[in-house]
């Protein structure tokens, strides 16, 4: 991925037919180094939504990717209390799936 990004010839924030971007897929699947790389380009929308209204933070929280949740929160450029189309937030998704570490991390931001 780094080689592709460094060419400057790829659209790092492109969307597939489901509204998912390379960042959202990396966040959902737990690829911390790719998430960091994409965030550092400064060319990705950190709060873009997929067809379900889920942001990268929501996807990472829902799938238990605590390191990625932490990385995204630390950018201070994500809406910590965003709601998907069903009204679920990253906090509610993490809590519903029993991810205590993520719940604690989100609560400690003071923004939920």
CATH class: Mainly Alpha
The CATH homologous superfamily is named Ankyrin repeat-containing domain
| Number of strand elements | 0
CATH architectural category: Alpha Horseshoe
Q: Over all CA atoms, what is the radius of gyration? A: 13 Å
Strand percentage: under 5%
Q: Looking at the chains present, what oligomeric state does this protein adopt?
A: single chain
Q: Can you count the helices? A: 7
- On the 0-100 scale, what is the average pLDDT? 91
Considering the chains and any ligands shown, give keywords for the structure.
single chain, Serine Threonine Protein Phosphatase 5, Tetratricopeptide repeat, 7 helices, mainly alpha, 112 residues
Secondary structure topology:
Layout: H1 2-7, H2 22-29, H3 32-41, H4 56-62, H5 66-74, H6 90-96, H7 100-108
Helix pairs in contact: 2-3, 2-4, 3-5, 4-5, 4-6, 5-7, 6-7
